[in-house]
Amino acid sequence: MVKRTCFEDAQCPIARSLDAIGDGWSLLIIRDALGGRRRFSEFQKSLGTAKNILAARLRALVAHGIFELRPASDGSAYQEYVLTDKGKDLFPVLVALRQWADDYLFEPGEEYTRLVDRKSGKRVRRLELHAQDGRLLRRQDTELVRVP
Predict the structure, then answer these.
(1) Which ranges of the chain would DSSP assign to H, the alpha helix?
(2) Residue 74 is part of a domain; what is its CATH number?
């Protein structure tokens, strides 16, 4: 198995993000946790991944402060993986991936899940990037600048 490149000291914020959450299993674990799963067995059943892979990803997510381990809420001997605020703040990242997939990865008429507003039942509006003054920004309206 090829060892992943470590980006924890990279100057690029995207590279550092990938170091923490940049594999498919980690993102799917976070997706499941946002949906209410908390126990190892729940993640394993949902994802169908090998236990050693799941255990490694969960350890890494805990080490990155995305999850914390807590005693089971039902008082049993089990532990639960609970998203931290850092983990919960990944919700818009997953929404952006979902919306991109809606646009490009499903054929017309193909069945899939859709994110809706729980209160209204209506589809969630597309994520947009706005300037400080409220203007809608596109890629060509932005540039990267080095932060000292």
Answers:
(1) 13-21, 24-34, 40-47, 51-63, 85-88, 91-104
(2) 1.10.10.10
